[in-house]
Amino acid sequence: MLDRKHPGHVFDVAVVGGGASGASATYHLSRAGLDVVLLDRNDLNTEASGRNAGSLHGQIQHEPFLEEGAEWAEAWLPALRFLADSLTLWDDLSDDLGTDLQVAKKGGILVADDVSQLAAIERKVALENRIGIPSRMLSADELRSLAPWLSDAVVGGELCPIEGKANPLLVAPAFARRAVEAGALVRTQTPAVGFDRDGDTRVIRTPGGDVRARRVVLAGGDGMPDLARHFDLDLPISSGAVQVSVTERVDPMVAHLFYYAGGKLTFKQAQSGTLLIGGGWPARRNAAGEWVVNPDSLRANLAMAIRIAPMIADLALLRTWTGIGNGTPDHSPIIGPVTAEGDVVVGFYPYMGFTAAPLMGRILADLAQGKDPGLDLAPFAPTRF
């Protein structure tokens, strides 16, 4: 029998992409007893999965709800249900992976400081309730009882009880570690630069030599458009860098994941005590074309945070970093086969892929084994664009 590192060895499945979704798929496949290799062009968890702020989302995001309108929101409900189902998996994930992932699901709160914002929030809550998410409206007094540090200008908002946070630095590595324990092989610094066919085997070309597998899972984040083109599929995945800031440690203060109805803002407290401030503010490119922190975005983001939480104004800011945010035109995931034979499958969740990763990995593992994932994937078909 050929050694698994020999170029002639044929794996059952090759997973391309070492973020949370790819590592999750590798974990589920290896636990099912398959011979699996995970390939990443860099190191594991170095892109979107490891550079986000760790939010676990389970409500319709307010900004696209306002911008895209009611018809879009109706069509997006299957993608929201996907997030809600994935959030249930987070409850036991630390135990499953043998790692404290610092999961805390105390709920998410959308805060309004203008009464004109409340009608849209109420419509959004009604849609969430329709698919079983128990969101509800909050009065100003209820908000302050949950978060006494909020500005006096707050007039009401929404509580989505299924939301929370986790540590993004820990999740993908924990999936990968347990996958390796179950027999998976992980190869970093191994980009997939081409794909060929040899009978019933897919041949993945890499700078370090060919990798052969009977089936392939593509979970490469912002590398997905290039990967999909090898199979004559054009995936309209956009990429842009956004930034997140972290403050010095403070005593426990913020139990929830907070959003602001008046602009781009997410706000939460990590287990370490630091406050994480984000919301999708864009980074910029320097003269060399590298993504770097945009000071204009930083000032605007911090001003918005101070508007909602005035007591943080005197805290020291420790650092601000950039991470890639990937999107699709309809904000919905892309999941399914990309070949007529069904031996190459793709999985990508825009903007909130960290939340979706536990379920995404499970579904991709089912598809790679030819199993019914138990979920209607028609709204997420790769060929819908």
Task: Give a verbal description of the structure.
With 385 residues, the chain is an alpha+beta fold. The protein folds into two domains: 1-104 and 164-236 and 330-385, FAD/NAD(P)-binding domain (3-Layer(bba) Sandwich); 105-163 and 238-327, 2-Layer Sandwich (D-Amino Acid Oxidase, Chain A, domain 2), CATH 3.30.9.10. Helices cover 30% and strands 26% of the residues. The protein is built from eleven helices and 20 strands. The protein has helices at 20-31, 48-51, 62-68, 70-90, 93-97, 118-130, 140-146, 171-181, 224-229, 295-308, 353-368; strands at 10-16, 36-39, 55-56, 108-112, 136-139, 156-160, 164-165, 185-187, 194-198, 201-205, 211-218, 238-249, 257-260, 266-269, 274-278, 284-285, 291-292, 317-327, 334-337, 344-348. Strands 1, 2, 8, 9, 10, 11, 19 and 20 form an eight-stranded mixed sheet that branches. The protein has an eight-stranded mixed sheet with strand order 5-6-4-13-14-15-12-18, sandwiched between helices. Helix 1 (20-31) runs parallel beside helix 8 (171-181), helix 1 runs parallel beside helix 11 (353-368) and helix 3 (62-68) runs antiparallel to helix 4. The chain is globular, with a radius of gyration of 21 Å. The model has no long low-confidence stretch (mean pLDDT 94).
Give me a quick take on this structure.
This protein has 385 residues and is of the alpha+beta class.
**Sheet with most strands:** 8 strands, mixed
Number of DSSP strands? 20
Number of helical segments with 4 or more residues: 11
Which CATH class of the largest domain?
Alpha Beta
